[in-house]
Amino acid sequence: MRGLVLGGAASGVGKTVAALAGIRAFENAGRTVQPAKAGPDFIDPSHHARVAGRPSRTLDPWLQGDDGLRRNYARGDGDVCVVEGMMGLYDGSAASTAGVAAALDLPVVLVVDASAGMESVAATALGFEAYADRTPHDLDVVGVVAQRAHGGRHEAGIREALPDSLAYCGRIPPRDDLEIPDRHLGLHTGEEAPLDATALDAAAETLRTDRLLDVAREPTLPATDPDAGAAGGDGRVDRGDDDRPRIAVADDAAFRFVYPATRERLGERATVVPFAPAAGDDLPPCDGVYLPGGYPELHAAALAEGPALASVADAAAEGTPVLGECGGLMALAETLTTADGDVHGMAGVLPASVERRERYQALDHVELRARRGALTADAGARLRGHEFHYSAADVASDARFAFDVERGTGIGGDREGLTEHRTLGTYCHVHPESGAFDAFLDEVEA
What we know:
By secondary structure, this protein is an alpha/beta fold. It has helices at residues 15-28, 43-52, 61-74, 97-104, 119-131, 152-161, 197-205, 209-215, 260-269, 300-305, 308-317, 327-332, 436-445; strands spanning 2-8, 33-38, 57-59, 80-88, 108-113, 141-147, 167-172, 182-183, 186-187, 246-250, 271-275, 288-291, 322-325, 335-337, 343-345, 352-356, 362-370, 382-389, 391-395, 401-407, 415-420, 423-426.
C-alpha cells in the first residue's frame, strides 16, 4: 500500500484538516484510503475514521518499536495511506513525525500555514527539506500543501516560488467551517464535531490529487508477519466462541480512547462485549473488564448515577481482572471532582480521589518498570506508553503501586499503576505491541 506523510511546519498549522481533505480527494478520485496518525493521539484518528469509514492506524515508534509500527501499517487496507503527522515535523524526543516517515521510508509533504505568506512558504519548505540532513533520519521532504491559502495571485506566488525538488500539492482554502473546535486534551472528536461535508469537498477540490499520488510510494515492509501478535508473538488465536473469555469494554462518550489495534487484539483472543456506562448500561457478564481513557470528568454525574461502576466494584472484589487506563483509572477511584468543583462517587475500587485541574498535569511518552507481577507485565518488565491528562490523583498512604516510573510523571512522580485485588488503574495508555493486553488476557485466562 503506497503512502505519504503530511507533516506540519509546526503544531496548529492545520494538519488534521489537510489530512481529511486528502482522504476525501483520494476517495473522489476512486481510491480506497487507509488513514493513519503519527504519534499516540486518539482524537485526530476519530476524524479520520469518520471521513474514511475505517479505523485510522496508530504509528508510534516509542509505543510499538519500528517493526511493530511497520506491522501496524501493513495491517491497513487500501490503495493509498494518508499519514497525518504529530506536532511539527521534527518535534518530539521519544517519537516524531520524521521518525515515523523514516521508519516506513515514506515521503513527507509539508503542510505550511500560508495565510500571511507566499515566497516565505517556499523558504520555509526549503528549510525543512535541508534540515533533514541534520537529523539521524533518512528523510525525503518532497512537496508542500499550502494551508489557509487563497487562489489566484496568492496560490500562484507560492507555486512559482517552489524549487523543482518540491512539488506543489495544492492548497486548503481559508474557511471558518474548516476549523475544528478544541478543549482540554485537544480537538473535539469526530463524533462530536465532524467537519461540514460541503466544506470538506471544497477543500478536496483544491488539492492536487495527481501530484500526491505521484509522490506516494511503497513503505519498508515489517520483518515479521503483519498478523503476528505483539512483538512477534503467537498471532491470531483460533478458538471456539464457547472457549473464549468475555471481555467487557466500556465504549461510550466517557470512554472513547482505544487504539484500533487494541480492539483487534482483544477480538483475536476474546469475545469483546461493549457496554456504555455513561448511557446507563450495567456491566454485562464477563471474565475481564477494560475501561479505556476518555472524558469521565464530563460525564461524572451519569457515571455516578448509573449501575455499571458499582457492578465493576463487585466484580473487582470477586477477583475479576479489571484494567483501567487514564479515564478508566478515574472511574475506578473513590471520587471524581469536576472542573466545576462537583464531587461524584465512582467505583471505589482504588484508594484515590481524583480531581480535574485547570492545567494539564502530564504530557509525555512514558516508560514503566513493573515492581512486581502486574496485570499487564511480569515483575521487572518494562512497558512503554503515553500519558496526557488534566486530573491529579490523591492516593491513600497505604496504596500499592505496580510500577516504578523510568520516564514520565506517573501517579506519584516515581510511581504508577494503582492496584487492588486483580485490578490495575494507570494514567499510562499502552499499545498492544507492548504485550500489555496479551498479559491482561493471560491473567483473565489463568
